[in-house]
Automatic annotation (TrEMBL):
<dbReference type="InterPro" id="IPR013560">
    <property type="entry name" value="DUF1722"/>
</dbReference>
<dbReference type="InterPro" id="IPR017087">
    <property type="entry name" value="UCP037004"/>
</dbReference>
<dbReference type="Pfam" id="PF04463">
    <property type="entry name" value="2-thiour_desulf"/>
</dbReference>
<dbReference type="Pfam" id="PF08349">
    <property type="entry name" value="DUF1722"/>
</dbReference>
<dbReference type="InterPro" id="IPR007553">
    <property type="entry name" value="2-thiour_desulf"/>
</dbReference>
<feature type="domain" description="DUF1722">
    <location>
        <begin position="193"/>
        <end position="307"/>
    </location>
</feature>
<protein>
    <recommendedName>
        <fullName>DUF1722 domain-containing protein</fullName>
    </recommendedName>
</protein>
Length: 316
């Protein structure tokens, strides 16, 4: 699969190695700079620098009600950049509808997507119960956008799931730009069938009837993509992958000899038992697909959901 370099991912500038943190440092994320940069373009933003805070600068933190906190200086409480950050976020996030994902800086009072420390007015900690002001507005303005934090991307399952969602969402954006039709929606759904089965079978069963509806195609598309992105949000489980692999195996029942059928069954069973990684049954199925050219499977994104050289399925 060749991923177009025009697939764009928003990212906190410090994660690309830009020295924009409060102390003049950065939090370079090698997965972004060394791996993702080969296939995706980045749109980098440092909200704190964007609202005029210099480098270096006083530290800031979330203070008050965790649902509607203020952004206050950590030591100099006369610093209050809440209104500036809120205005910047509200003005900026709607213009990011051309990106297909976002990587935020964890624990940041501006960019943290979850578990950001919040403090009471008297300085006592209320716990890691907040969301960065910019991050919150981003996720509100673009609710379909795949969003992750740098720390969470150290988890191989979350890393794989994030890139999978980014690429799937970019396909949706490209289709909508061309102009949505019933035929295009049907093709999109068909080609993602096994990815949906591997991630969320109940939602997959709901999506089929939506695609089959007649009526306002834009309304149908809106309801479809809401559920589609929700289905992909959770990493696929071993159980669901196993069910999907077995479903795909059925397409080869008229092609494989008894020995190949038995070997494939054993490989899938060993994967289900945790004795083999996902790549083993997938590679075997891919070889059979290449040999027998089963038409329905040839363009399924389950086999190539993102660039192969990112090696994201290693360890799954």
């Amino acid at each position: 699969m060749n991923t177009s370099p025009t697939i764009r991912i928003g990212i906190s500038a410090c994660l690309l190695g830009d020295p924009v943190r409060f102390d003049g440092g950065h939090k370079n994320l090698p997965f972004a700079t060394d791996e993702l940069s080969r296939h995706f373009d980045f749109v980098k933003i440092c909200p704190e620098q964007a609202i005029g805070m210099g480098v270096p600068r006083p530290t800031i933190r979330l203070v008050g009600d965790p649902d509607t906190p203020r952004l206050i200086g950590s030591t100099d409480t006369s610093i209050d950049v809440t209104d500036k950050m809120t205005a910047f976020a509200r003005n900026t996030t709607p213009s990011l509808d051309h990106i297909s994902g976002y990587i935020l800086c964890a624990k940041s009072p501006s960019c943290g997507m979850e578990r950001v420390p919040v403090y009471a007015e008297n300085g006592n900690g209320l716990g890691k119960v907040g969301v960065g002001l910019f991050a919150k507005q981003l996720m509100t303005a673009l609710p379909l956008l795949p969003v992750e934090e740098n720390g969470r991307l150290n988890d191989v399952h979350l890393r794989e799931n994030f890139v999978l969602r980014v690429v799937a969402y970019s396909r949706w954006q490209a289709m909508m730009k061309e102009g949505i039709t019933a035929k295009r929606l049907q093709d999109y759904h068909r080609r993602h069938k096994f990815l949906l089965l591997a991630h969320n079978q109940p939602i997959y069963r709901e999506l089929g009837p939506i695609v089959a509806e007649s009526g306002d195609i834009n309304d149908i598309a809106d309801r479809y993509i809401d559920q589609f992105m929700l289905a992909l949000r959770q990493p696929a489980s071993i159980k669901n992958h196993t069910n999907t692999l077995m479903h795909i195996q059925g397409f080869f029942k008229d092609h494989l000899d008894p020995e190949d059928k038995q070997q494939l069954t054993e490989v899938i069973r060993d994967y289900a038992a945790g004795l083999l990684p996902l790549l083993v049954p997938l590679e075997m199925l891919s070889l059979f697909l290449k040999k027998y050219q089963v038409e329905y499977l040839l363009d399924q994104y389950y086999f190539t959901p993102y660039p192969r050289d990112l090696k994201l399925r290693i360890g799954l």
